[in-house]
Design a protein that fits this description.
It comes from Daphnia sinensis. The chain has about 220 residues and is an alpha/beta fold. The protein has seven helices and ten strands. The chain binds S-adenosylmethionine.
Length: about 220
């Protein structure tokens, strides 16, 4: 059975034509994109408002001064706003993964990615990607109630090269509203204690982050 995540964060199982691990092809390029384009317009408005998740995490990414050839995975890529920003700074070796084929259709049309994986992450799902593949995983707006939780850490770490970077940005206020985020930082620190990853740079607090909330950018390094 395949599953996909909806925009409001809920899941719909067995979406027709959605196979976990599917790689996009050119034949998908011209499917109807109206609602995706509307979503993207709204996201671009947010980017322009100087208060958005993609912009904040890419700024932190650029501060790391990583190699331009770094192999990057845009995690829960949505319509590709992170990749657009990365590409504008010369980082073009980018793949994407997202649970929704239709969310990715627009970015596919824009030819942002080298490989494009349609697959859920978290819970029992395993990314259709070989271990030790990426220099950098970057996830903007991915960790949120109903989307991605700390149970995804192990598989994200698996597909990152030893020494590679796993970075994400998220709102600071999920702990009190979502039981699945109550122990989020404890899970991070458990993996630090167990020698699986370390903080590459300290967690950064962003004020304001999105919709008036504060945010964090985490930058971990796989050991
Ligand atoms: C808020 S958007 C993030 C978009 C993008 N990273 C950005 O910053 O513009 C959430 C995306 O995550 C995807 N998604 C949500 N939960 C998922 C999961 N568990 N596995 C895979 N994709 C998921 C949705 O399909 C949607 O495209």
């Amino acid at each position: 059975m395949s599953s996909t995540a909806s925009l409001d964060g809920s899941y719909e199982d067995s979406m027709p034509g959605e196979e976990s691990g599917q790689v996009f092809t050119n034949k998908d390029k011209d499917e109807p994109l109206k609602w995706i384009e509307k979503f993207e317009t709204e996201m671009v408005d947010l980017v322009d408002s100087n208060c958005t998740e993609p912009k904040h995490i890419v700024k932190t990414f650029l501060e790391l001064k990583l190699d331009r050839e770094s192999r990057i995975l845009d995690v829960l890529a949505g319509t590709g706003l992170v990749a657009e920003l990365l590409r504008s700074h010369g980082y073009v070796n980018i793949d994407a993964i997202d649970g929704r084929k239709d969310m990715l259709a627009l970015s596919n049309k824009k030819q942002l990615y080298k490989n494009f994986y349609v697959s859920l992450l978290g819970c029992q799902y395993t990314a259709p990607i070989q271990s030790d593949t990426y220099d950098v995983l970057i996830a903007s707006g991915a960790f949120a109630p109903g989307q991605l939780h700390s149970d995804a850490f192990c598989d994200l770490i698996r597909i990152t090269k030893p020494g590679g970077i796993i970075m994400w940005s998220m709102r600071t206020d999920y702990g009190p509203i979502s039981p699945r985020f109550a122990n989020f930082d404890a899970h991070i620190e458990d993996l630090v204690t167990n020698g699986v990853w370390r903080h590459y740079v300290p967690r950064k607090t962003i004020k304001p982050y999105v919709h008036g909330s504060e945010g964090y950018v985490y930058t971990m390094q796989r050991i």
